[in-house]
Amino acid sequence: MIRSFSFTILMFLLLSTSVNAQIINVENSRIHTDTVGWAGELGAGVSFTKNTQEVFLAQMNAHLQYKTQKDLFLILGNYGFLSGDAVKLINNSFLHLRYNRKINELLRIEAFSQILQNPVTLIDYRILTGAGPRFKLSGSKKLKLYAATLVMHEYERELDSIKTIHNDIRSSSYASFSLLFNSQTELVNTIFYQPLFTSITDYRILDQMKFSVKTGKKFAITLNLNYLYDNAPVAGVPRINYTFSTGLDYKF
Question: Which domains does the chain have, with CATH numbers?
Answer without folding.
Answer: 2-250 (2.40.160.40)
